Amino acid sequence: MKSDFDIIRWKLPDGEVRIYPIADVHFGAINHNSVAWTRFCNKVAADPSAYLILDGDLLNNNTRSSVGSPWDDTIRPREAKKMMVEYLEPLKDKILCMTSGNHERRSLKDADDDPTYDIACKLDIEDVYRQNAAFVKVSIGDRTKGKGRPHEPKITYHIAVTHGAGGGIYTGATVNRNERWGNVIDGVDCVIVGHTHKGTVTRPSKLVIDQRNNVVTVQEYVVISCVAWQDYSEYAMQKMLLPCRTAKPQTLVLNPNEKEIAVLW
Description:
The protein starts with 7 loop residues before the first strand and ends with a strand. The chain is of the alpha/beta class.
């Protein structure tokens, strides 16, 4: 298992890149939207420009010691893990990174076993797994420097990914926490966080000191809070949480010609 600080590097072909940030699938939960999840996986498989970032809580993974009851799951964890591998097998070459979430940490705490790491190993992509946070470098295309000289990527993006933590009923708490984490990562172009189920898109900025050119610039970055793949019921209703958009993830569109991230939602 590699360190969280070991950057995951990708060199992608020239052309538009579409990245779907996915978290909180909660496969096996009684209110998991299996129809939408199946439709989405088929869509990604058919799109050559589509890639995935998997940001924790792929499985619901209720255990005896967790807040949720195992009786609230429709599939036992071992079967859910097997079925998730079957969903992701056709997509494994499109997965840029995988991280764990609080639902995986239930098994980590009880038995030192991480279902998402097991899934990554079964797919033979454990090199893109990180337990706590992933830092991903995406380079697109080539820029020729001249005959006999090395090639450089046309555009490079840096993405920071973590599942997230903390509660808060209101969306503003999620936005503040996510942007605060992004503010401590110098050079980041996009921050992706899950956990709260509150889908959001914000574009904060930070002041950057360019020591080489002796100037100060304003650098914008994108912050994504992922949607969940559960219908509103059960736990959310018991805890009086607010309904929010589900099963319709954001799409990050990376421009291959100039540093620009568009977000479709």
